[in-house]
């Protein structure tokens, strides 16, 4: 059963509200406590799900999926990937050869399908023109090098670049998204302003360069944001973080705990 009704926001748990500059940044221990609770609630996520078998095909599929899932649920992106595979369009050459309207129709389940078709073709064009058609060449190098290359491609912003860097290149970075902002603001553990790079740097500094751990962090945050800490009607009474969450406790009319995790 979910909390239901309109949430009574507490003094520190309001969505979108910048934390006071005087409050302490969350500690590593606090972050570890959050991670442990999410892991206990949801188990290991082991992202990224792919249907392709060989490594380079999997990396391409992750790149395309990261573009297709922009501003949409994974379900829609996965359906678009299935349609691309069924139409034999899962290669950079085949994507570029595909007439724009046909490609748009194939990726229609991912939403914003015309612009996403353009983004897929922009990505494929760069791989072919600048990396000899090799996704592995695009993804070769350390995290900052790969990330910077990706950010130069039209249609790829920081969240998509970090998803590709972490899950396709398997290089350490933290993927920030709307679920991260919401969760840490509600927990009163926001590291600062709601800015992508503020969060990314903060978590990179504290989580470290463990790719597996960074992979799980993002996957767990997404799972929690989709299933439990939903934007409207969060299921606070089922949440493993309730004891430590001012927002959830206010929503359920519970006393606030004195100590943060
Ligand atoms: S108790 Fe859990 S679900 Fe509710 S606001 Fe806090 S973190 Fe989100």
Radius of gyration: 20 Å
CATH class of the largest domain: Mainly Alpha
For the largest beta-sheet, the strand count, sense and barrel status come to: none
Helical content stands at 40-55%
Bound molecules: iron/sulfur cluster
**Portion in strands:** under 5%
Question: How many β-strands, per DSSP?
Answer: 0
Q: Looking at this structure, what is the CATH superfamily of the largest domain?
A: Hypothetical protein, domain 2
CATH topology of the largest domain: Endonuclease III, domain 1
CATH architecture of the largest domain: Orthogonal Bundle
Q: What is the number of domains?
A: 2
Question: What's the SSE blueprint?
Answer:
Blueprint: H1 28-42, H2 55-68, H3 74-86, H4 92-97, H5 100-106, H6 113-131, H7 135-138, H8 143-151, H9 158-168, H10 178-186, H11 196-207, H12 211-227, H13 246-251
Task: Provide an overview of this structure.
It is a single chain. The protein is mainly alpha-helical and 261 residues long. The chain has two domains: 28-45 and 175-251, Endonuclease Iii, domain 2, CATH 1.10.1670; 55-168, Hypothetical protein, domain 2 (Endonuclease III, domain 1), CATH 1.10.340. It is built from 13 helices and no strands. It has helices spanning 28-42, 55-68, 74-86, 92-97, 100-106, 113-131, 135-138, 143-151, 158-168, 178-186, 196-207, 211-227, 246-251. Helix 1 (28-42) crosses helix 12, helix 2 packs across helix 3 and helix 5 packs across helix 6 (113-131). The radius of gyration is 20 Å and the shape is globular. Residues 1-16 have low confidence and may be disordered. The protein binds iron/sulfur cluster.
């Amino acid at each position: 059963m979910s909390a239901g009704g309109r949430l009574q926001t507490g003094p520190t748990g309001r969505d979108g509200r910048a934390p006071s500059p005087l409050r302490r940044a969350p500690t590593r221990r606090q972050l570890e406590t959050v991670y442990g609770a999410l892991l206990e609630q949801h188990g290991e996520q082991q992202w990224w799900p792919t249907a392709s078998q060989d490594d380079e095909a999997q990396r391409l599929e992750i790149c395309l999926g990261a573009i297709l899932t922009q501003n949409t649920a994974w379900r829609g992106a996965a359906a678009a990937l299935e349609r691309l595979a069924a139409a034999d369009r899962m290669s950079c050459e085949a994507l570029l050869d595909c007439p724009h309207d046909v490609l748009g129709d194939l990726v229609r389940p991912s939403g914003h399908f015309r612009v996403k078709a353009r983004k897929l073709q922009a990505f494929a064009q760069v791989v072919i023109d600048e990396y000899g058609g090799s996704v592995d060449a695009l993804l070769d190098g350390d995290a900052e090098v790969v990330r910077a290359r990706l950010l130069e491609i039209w249609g790829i912003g920081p969240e998509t670049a970090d998803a590709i860097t972490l899950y396709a290149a398997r290089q350490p970075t933290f993927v920030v998204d709307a679920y991260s902002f919401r969760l840490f603001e509600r927990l009163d553990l926001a590291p600062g302003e709601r800015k992508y790079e503020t969060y990314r740097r903060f978590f990179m500094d504290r989580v470290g360069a463990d790719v597996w751990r960074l992979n799980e962090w993002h996957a767990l945050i997404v799972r929690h944001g989709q299933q439990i800490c939903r934007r409207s009607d969060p299921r606070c009474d089922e949440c493993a973080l309730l004891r430590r969450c001012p927002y959830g406790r206010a929503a359920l009319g519970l006393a606030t705990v004195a100590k943060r995790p």
